[in-house]
C-alpha cells in the first residue's frame, strides 16, 4: 500500500478512479470526513482551490479535492460547474430532453484536482472531449457516464471498465499529472 493522501469527497467512484492511477506512483487517496465546502463560481479551479484550502485548515494534513463538470457545446457550456445540481434535479433524462432537437452533441468533461499541503496548493486540470449519446448506455461508473462518449471510443464511460475509463477520462488525466508531480515533491 502506498502513502495515503486525504481526499475530501463522499464519492467512492472518484476515490476508486484516482486510486487506480495513484497506485502506480506509490500513493493512494484516503477519503476523510472533512466537508468539501463548495463556493458558487463559474470556475472549477476557484471551487477546487477554496475547497482544498478550507479542508486543509480543518485537517492540518495534506488533502486534495477533485471538482468536475460536464460542458455541453450547444448549451453554451451548461451545466459546467453546476453539473452535480443538474444531475440531482433533472438527471440524465432531463439533459437528454434539453438536447432532443440538437444535432450538435459535442461536450467535454473537465476535472480539477487541488492538493493543499504545507507549502501551498497545487492544481492539476484536464479535459476530455466527446459527445452526448442519444440514449443512456452501460451500467458502470456514476453521474453522466451512461451518456458521455469520449473522443476515440464508441463506448460511453458507463460501458467501460474503470481502467478503460481512466485511459480516456478527465479525472484519469488529471490524476496522471498529479502522479508525475508527486514523483518530484515531498508532500507534508
Ligand atoms: P462534483 O465534481 O462532485 O461537483 O460533481 C460534478 C458532477 O458532474 C457529478 O455529480 C456528476 O454528475 C458529474 N460528473 C463529474 N465527473 C463525472 C464522471 O467522470 N462521469 C460522469 N459524471 C461525472
Number of E-state strands? 7
Element-by-element helix/strand order: EHEHEEHHEEEHH
Bound molecules: inosinic acid
How far apart lie the N and C ends? 18 Å
Rounded mean pLDDT is 96
Morphology: globular
Could you say how many structural domains there are in total? 1
- Output the CATH topology: Maf protein
Number of helices: 6
**Which structural category fits the helices and strands?**
alpha/beta
Strand content: 25-35%
**What is the share of helical residues?**
25-40%
Q: What gyration radius follows from the Cα positions, in whole Å? A: 16 Å
Low-confidence stretches: none
* CATH class placement: Alpha Beta
CATH architecture: Alpha-Beta Complex
Largest sheet: 7 strands, mixed
Quickly describe the structure.
The chain is an alpha/beta fold.
Descriptive overview:
- The chain has a single domain (about 5-180), classed as Alpha-Beta Complex (Maf protein).
- It has six helices and seven strands.
- It has helices at about 10-20, 45-60, 85-90, 90-100, 160-170, 170-185, and strands at about 5, 25-30, 65-70, 80, 105-115, 120-130, 150.
- Helix 1 (about 10-20) crosses helix 5 (about 160-170).
- The longest helix is centred in the first third of the chain and has 16 residues, at about 45-60.
- The model has no long low-confidence stretch (mean pLDDT about 95).
- Inosinic acid (IMP) binds near residues 68, 84, 169 and 171.
